[in-house]
Design a protein that fits this description.
Layout: H1 12-16, E1 29-37, H2 41-52, E2 57-60, E3 76-77, H3 85-92, H4 94-105, H5 107-118, E4 129-133, H6 136-152, E5 158-160, H7 162-169, E6 178-182, E7 186-187, H8 190-204, E8 207-209, E9 214-220, E10 223-228, E11 231-240, E12 258-267, E13 283-286, E14 293-296, E15 302-307, H9 320-329, E16 338-348, E17 355-360, E18 363-367, H10 373-388, E19 400-401, H11 412-432
Parallel strand pairs: 1-2, 1-11, 2-8, 4-13, 11-18, 17-19
Antiparallel strand pairs: 3-7, 4-6, 5-6, 9-10, 10-11, 12-15, 12-16, 13-14, 14-15, 17-18
Helix pairs in contact: 2-8, 2-10, 3-4, 5-10
Length: 436
């Protein structure tokens, strides 16, 4: 089953998004080439790319498109996965690893090309992405290998020292040890992007049914029978794209990822005198295990995100750690008062990699954005559309894997808390230079 239908939670993105398009009307009986479960970036991109191939796709969303992480993330468009070719080669072989990395490296280009093609109203700016090292150890082990990989693959990446990093952030002091800059990245309004993806899919001929939670899925001969809130859909193929909000619709699938809560705050729009701080259009993520990510929005707010102190429905008081982080990075802002606070779920897999699964004939599943949702999920939608359209697994530049489930998934909250405390200690030791 999908999550029950509910209203969009209060957030900066819900308050400033473009209007939602007019969605399709449900009918008691529908037929489709492909039924897509989940109306986030992955599901919407899948439907859009299928429709462009002339396939009939129906998206079934329990709430409304963008209700989950697609409407609550930081809006940073980051090219590629966190893993390098060197990380992936022992698992999948050198050739497959290179195909994966190169393909996912074009994910930001896919996002911005779709925005251009359909004239999407989502305040997209391609101002680059900066990954900042919080100490010498992460600089050597994370920043340099990623920089060197992308430079070798032809990306005009830059390696920045501490002073260059401070200048890029618009501050006088050096809050980070170093950084690398990827010109392919940028920022956008994430809920607007989800709604505009939906509009594009509708324009191409897909159907999108909001407030239509899927309650049953079964194989019926050579097709699938999907039961969804009073609607029966018969489809040749099914794509499950529920990611961090996956439940028991398909046996065991929910245990293949841990839903981790990410928390964000947005300041009030900053005065013009603070315009040099964090140029609009550039996204920043640091190298901490409990990372910080931040950017400016189209109305000059500063948006900061990190690990959540609460599961859902955060209060303004919960923003205190992020307020202190902003003050530490940008002292001239003091302790900024939040205008918005909100949270959402990120799907983390055991190996921290995204996965495509094929658990039954005609059933395709994506799990594990692992914090790279905007670009990665858009690209995954294109790959899932190729598979559902009949392209062989060997011709898709991403491996098909078997779900690797968490044995003690029911104790995930306790495990997440314990691991978070351990990660916080390691981050502090690395930042202080005591762990090299």
């Amino acid at each position: 089953m999908n999550m029950p239908a509910r209203a969009l939670p209060r957030s900066l993105w819900a308050a400033t998004a473009c209007p939602a398009p007019a969605y399709s009307q449900a009918k008691p009986q529908l037929t489709a080439d492909v039924a897509v479960v989940g109306g986030g970036y992955t599901g919407l991109s899948t439907a859009l790319h299928l429709a462009r191939k002339g396939r009939k796709a129906v998206v079934l969303e329990a709430a409304e498109p963008g209700w989950g992480a697609s409407g609550r993330n930081g809006g940073q468009v980051i090219a590629g996965m966190k893993a390098t070719i060197g990380d992936l080669a022992p698992l999948f072989g050198e050739d497959s690893a290179r195909r994966m990395v190169v393909n996912m490296g074009s994910s930001a280009e896919l996002v911005f090309s779709l925005i251009d093609r359909y004239g999407m109203n989502c305040h997209a700016i391609r101002g680059g992405w900066l990954q900042a090292a919080h100490g010498e150890k992460p600089y050597k082990e994370t920043i340099v290998p990623r920089f060197e990989q992308w430079r070798a693959l032809g990306v005009d990446a830059q390696l920045l020292d501490a002073h260059q990093t401070a200048a890029a952030l618009g501050v006088d002091s050096a809050p980070y040890h170093a950084a690398w800059r990827d010109p392919r990245g940028g920022v956008l309004q994430p809920l607007s992007y989800a709604r505009e993806l939906a509009r594009a899919a509708l324009q191409e001929g897909a159907d999108i049914l909001p407030r239509t939670p899927v309650t049953a899925l079964r194989r019926d001969g050579n097709a699938w029978q999907v039961t969804a809130h009073g609607t029966e859909i018969r489809a040749g193929q099914v794509v499950i794209a529920t990611n961090a909000y996956t439940d028991g619709l398909w046996p065991g699938l929910a245990r293949a990822a841990i839903p981790v809560t990410s928390f964000q705050m947005a300041t009030y729009p900053l005065d013009a005198r603070f315009d040099p701080i964090l140029p609009v259009g550039m996204g920043v993520t640091d190298s901490r295990r409990l990372l910080l990510y931040f950017r400016r929005d189209h109305q000059r707010r500063l948006v900061m995100g990190g690990r959540s102190p609460v599961e859902d429905n955060p209060r303004f008081a919960d923003a205190a750690p992020l307020q202190r982080a902003i003050q530490g990075l940008f002292p001239e802002l003091g302790l900024p008062k939040p205008e918005f606070v909100w949270s959402g779920k990120v799907a983390i897999t055991k190996d921290r990699l995204p996965h495509i699964h094929h658990p039954a004939p005609g059933l395709h599943v994506f799990m594990g954005c692992n914090g790279r949702g905007v670009g990665l999920c858009t690209m995954m939608g294109q790959l899932l559309a190729d598979l559902a359209d009949g392209r062989s697994a060997g011709d898709v530049p991403f491996p098909i894997t078997v779900p690797d489930t968490f044995a003690l998934h029911g104790l995930r909250r306790l495990g997440i808390y314990a691991l978070s405390q351990y990660y916080r200690l390691l981050d502090q030791l690395e930042a202080s230079g005591r762990l090299r």
